[in-house]
Design goal:
The chain has 385 residues and is α/β, with parallel strands linked by helices. Helix content is 37%, strand content 17%. The protein folds into 2 domains: 171 residues, Phosphoglycerate kinase, N-terminal domain (Rossmann fold, 3-Layer(aba) Sandwich); 151 residues, Rossmann fold. The strands form 4 sheets. It has a 6-stranded parallel β-sheet, sandwiched between helices. Strands 10-9-14-15-16 form a 5-stranded parallel β-sheet, with helices on both faces. Strands 12-11-13 form a 3-stranded antiparallel β-sheet. Helix 3 crosses helix 4, helix 4 packs parallel to helix 13 and helix 7 packs across helix 8. It starts with 12 loop residues before the first strand and ends with a helix. The structure holds 3-phosphoglyceric acid (3PG). One of its GO terms (molecular function) is ADP binding.
C-alpha cells in the first residue's frame, strides 16, 4: 500500500476519509476516541501544506435526505473547541469545493449523498474530482465498499493509506499473524450468532478462548445448566458444544443474577448450578472472574472484544472490570476493539494501559475473521499497478 507519509502533500488538494462516526447525545460528542485517533493524520496533512478536506459518515441516515441528527456539525464543534485547527463544515461539495492551505473543510455526512452506500461510480468520480490525493484513513469503515471508502480511491489521481489505517493494520497483523504465545482471545457481548464467524476464526489461532456476557450464557446452557431468563441462544447450543470440544474455554463456575433488568437491581452471587427460572445471569461471579484473570495473566498476546456482563449497570460491572484490569496489568501485547469494549475501558480509565485500541467495530471483527477489507483491497490493487 502507498502511504500518505511517502507523499509530498504541499499545495495539493488532499481528501481524507476518516471514520468520525462517533456517539452523539443532545448535539454533543460523547466519546471522542475516533476523533482523537484521526487527528494526527489531519494535523500532519495541514502541517505539510495540503489543502485538506475530510469526509466521513455518521450513523445510518436515509440517503438523499438531510437530517440534523446525522449532521457532522457536533464533530466540527468538538474540533473547534478542542484543537486549534481552522475547521468549517461544508454542506454542498459534490459539484466542487476547494480548501485553502491551512484550513480543514469537513464535508457533511457522505451518507446524505445518493449512491454512497451502493458504491455508485458516478458519485465516486465526483468525490475523486475534488482531490489530487485521496487518503483512506477510516479503518473503522474499511470493511464497507462504499463510494467514499472504495470507489473514490479507484478514480482519484493518487490513492494512499493514512497513518491511522496503516497503524491499525500493523497492530492487528502483529497480534494475529505471528503472535507471541499463548494468545488468549476474550469475546463477550450479547449473542453467539453475531460473533460465530469470529469465534470460529479464533478457534484456529488462539491458544485459549474466554467467553463472556450473553455469549457465555449460551455456553452455560450447553453444559446442561438452567439459565432461567438469561439472554442466550438455545439454537446455538450445538455450536457452543463444538467450540468447547475444539478449545480450552474456562468454565463459568459462578454468576451474578438478578430478577429485573435495571440499574438498581441488586446482584446475587450464585453457583452456576443454582440459577432459578425467574433469574437472569448478568455477570460473571467472583470465582469465574478470578479464573479468567488468571488465564489472562499467563497470556503473551490478548485480543479483547465485547464486555463480560451488563457493565452499564454498576451492580453487574464487576466481571468486566476484573477482566479489563487484568488486561491492563498484563505485560502481554493487548488489543481491544469494538464500541462497548472501548466504553468499558473508558469507564475505568484504562486506555493508557492497553497496548493498542482499535477504532474498528465491525472492521475489527472482519479483520480478525481473516476477511479482506474492500478499502484495503482497493489500495493494494492501486499499489500493484
Ligand atoms: C462502525 O461504527 O462500525 C463504522 O463506523 C461503520 O458503520 P456502519 O456499520 O454503519 O457501516
Amino acid at each position: 500500500i502507498l502511504k500518505m507519509t511517502e507523499l509530498d502533500l504541499a499545495g495539493k488538494r488532499v481528501l481524507i476519509r476518516e471514520d468520525l462516526n462517533v456517539p452523539i447525545k443532545d448535539g454533543k460528542v460523547t466519546s471522542d476516541a475516533r476523533i482523537r485517533a484521526a487527528l494526527p493524520t489531519i494535523k500532519a496533512a495541514v502541517a505539510a501544506g495540503a489543502k485538506v478536506m475530510v469526509m466521513s459518515h455518521l450513523g445510518r441516515p436515509t440517503e438523499g435526505q438531510y437530517a440534523e441528527e446525522f449532521s457532522l456539525q457536533p464533530v466540527v464543534n468538538y474540533l473547534l473547541e478542542n484543537t486549534d485547527l481552522k475547521v468549517r463544515l461544508v454542506q454542498d461539495y459534490i459539484a466542487g469545493v476547494e480548501a485553502q492551505a491551512g484550513e480543514v473543510l469537513i464535508l457533511e455526512n457522505v451518507r446524505f449523498n445518493v449512491g454512497e452506500s451502493a458504491d455508485d461510480e458516478t458519485l465516486a468520480k465526483k468525490y475523486a474530482a475534488l482531490c489530487d490525493i485521496y487518503v483512506m484513513d477510516a479503518f473503522g469503515t474499511a470493511h464497507r465498499a462504499q463510494a467514499s471508502t472504495h470507489g473514490v480511491g479507484v478514480f482519484a489521481p493518487v490513492a494512499c493509506g493514512g497513518p491511522l489505517l496503516i497503524g491499525e493494520l500493523d497492530a492487528l497483523g502483529k497480534a494475529l499473524h505471528n503472535p507471541k504465545r499463548p494468545l488468549v482471545a476474550i469475546v463477550g457481548g450479547s449473542k453467539v450468532s453475531t460473533k460465530l464467524t469470529v469465534l470460529d476464526a479464533l478457534s484456529k489461532i488462539a491458544d485459549q478462548l474466554v467467553v463472556g456476557g450473553g455469549i457465555s450464557n449460551t455456553f452455560v446452557a450447553a453444559r446442561g445448566y438452567n439459565v432461567g431468563r438469561s439472554l442466550h441462544e438455545a439454537d446455538l447450543i450445538p455450536e457452543a458444544k463444538r467450540l468447547m470440544d475444539l478449545l480450552d474455554i474456562p468454565e463459568t463456575v459462578d454468576v451474578r443474577v438478578g430478577k429485573n433488568f435495571n440499574e438498581s437491581e441488586p446482584a446475587v452471587i450464585k453457583d452456576v448450578s443454582e440459577v432459578q427460572d425467574d433469574e437472569e445471569i448478568m455477570d460473571y461471579g467472583p470465582q469465574t472472574a478470578e479464573n479468567v484473570a488468571a488465564v489472562l495473566k499467563s497470556a503473551k498476546t490478548i485480543l479483547w472484544n465485547g464486555p463480560c456482563g451488563v457493565f452499564e449497570f454498576d451492580n453487574f460491572a464487576k466481571g468486566t472490570e476484573v477482566v479489563a484490569r487484568a488486561i491492563a496489568d498484563s505485560d502481554a501485547f493487548s488489543i481491544a476493539g469494538g464500541g462497548d469494549t472501548l466504553a468499558a475501558i473508558d469507564k475505568w480509565d484504562l486506555s493508557d494501559k492497553i497496548s493498542y485500541i482499535s477504532t474498528g467495530g465491525g472492521a475489527f471483527l472482519e479483520f480478525v475473521e481473516g476477511k479482506e477489507l474492500p478499502a484495503v483491497a482497493m489500495l493494494e490493487a492501486r499499489a500493484a499497478k
